Prior knowledge:
This protein has 141 residues and is mainly beta. It contains two helices and eight strands. It has one domain (25-135): Immunoglobulin-like (Sandwich).
Amino acid sequence: xxxxxxxxxxxxxxxxxxxxxxxxxxxxxxxxxxxxxxxxxxxxxxxxxxxxxxxxxxxxxxxxxxxxxxxxxxxxxxxxxxxxxxxxxxxxxxxxxxxxxxxxxxxxxxxxxxxxxxxxxxxxxxxxxxxxxxxxxxxxx
Length: 141
């Protein structure tokens, strides 16, 4: 009996020393699929109805938000910026639907949301071909 117990107790130690077992690597972006860590970069630009750039401060904007398949990614809208990007880490390649909009401090939308679909087939960064153009009305002087 004593000999059986020693063998049973030694088995987990041997497995740990030989590196056997399951290792989970979340990867640099918190997810991953077979070592593939794709990211989607969604660019945006704030403009008035004539197409002129509008800063976040002039639009009364506090944040820009991307909704990617129901998951929200929010970025601060820098007061002196009229364009920027939202970085979206993905769990794996695939087809993703994204909607981008700009919001004031009370989380009210300031523009009509812009939507696109992206078929991500590679690891690394994929940047949208064209920015989401968010037409806003300046709030005044």
